[in-house]
Amino acid sequence: MVALTPSFALHLAELAESTGLDLAATSVKRLLVAGEPGGGEAELRGRLEAAWGARVTEAMGIGDIAVSLWGECEHQVGMHFSGAGLVHVELIDPDMGAVVPMVDGAEGELVYTHLAQRAAPLLRFRSRDHARVWTSRCACGRDSLRVRCIGRTDDMLIVRGVNVFPSAIREVVAGFDGVPGLIQVRPVAKGPKQAPPLPVVVEAEARLGLAEEMQRAIRARLLVATKVTLVPPGTLPRTSYKSKLVDWSEAKEGAS
Ligand SMILES: [Zn+2]
Questions:
Q1: Rounded distance between C-alpha atoms, residue 171 and residue 202, angstroms
Q2: What's the predicted TM-score (pTM) here?
Q3: How far is the CA of 56 from the centre of ligand 1 (A)?
Q4: CB-proximal residues (5 Å) to ion ligand 1
Q5: CATH number for domain 156-231, candidates 3.10.20.30, 3.30.300.30, 3.30.70.940, 3.30.1360.10
Q6: pLDDT tops 60 at residue 256
Q7: What is the 251 CA–ligand 1 centroid distance (Å)?
Q8: 88 phi, psi to nearest 5 deg
């Protein structure tokens, strides 16, 4: 078993492929990914599982509350909450702060309250993690709350009133054949509000019409207009830690 960020797992998979090393032939049978969203996205997960010949499960914690709070079981359908009795978890609307009822499929920002911490308890601590939750019983028998982290609230952009997470765009483009799933969103305006089309740089072997196909797929799935620019594989910065999905270097004050 190895524990690492999904970005680093993908980086090692690319490195292994370029040097002719067959990771699937190694003794690694399980990848525990954590530290950023991505390990729960079907496309990225499938790519990692194929490259490593290993099962991928996710875990998530938050340093201010507890370093490990959520972990996925062998059924791979969201991370189970393991802090019952110690930490209270809520879901809120990140814009309004209103509590979102916990029902299957509900989405919002995770908010935590320490229940048993005496030294420096935190009350309703906003995680900035945007998640989808499930309250129904998992096939493993556990009935604890399950989540999948969709993205960081800080990374969320609003394009004509539609909330967009860069990690969701990555999931759509990673569904295309031969696309490694490395993207960077390049907002033109500072702050979350952006005018369409949203510029997105995608690593892919260019072929006629691919950028337009991706734009259509993103629009169909996420209801947002984008301008996809393809760059050769290996162009975007690699990371040994967490991917930077948004590049603000071209954003200007009041441009939206
Ligand atoms: Zn389970």
A1: 12
A2: 0.83
A3: 14
A4: 73, 75, 138, 140, 142
A5: 3.30.300.30
A6: no
A7: 42
A8: -100, 135
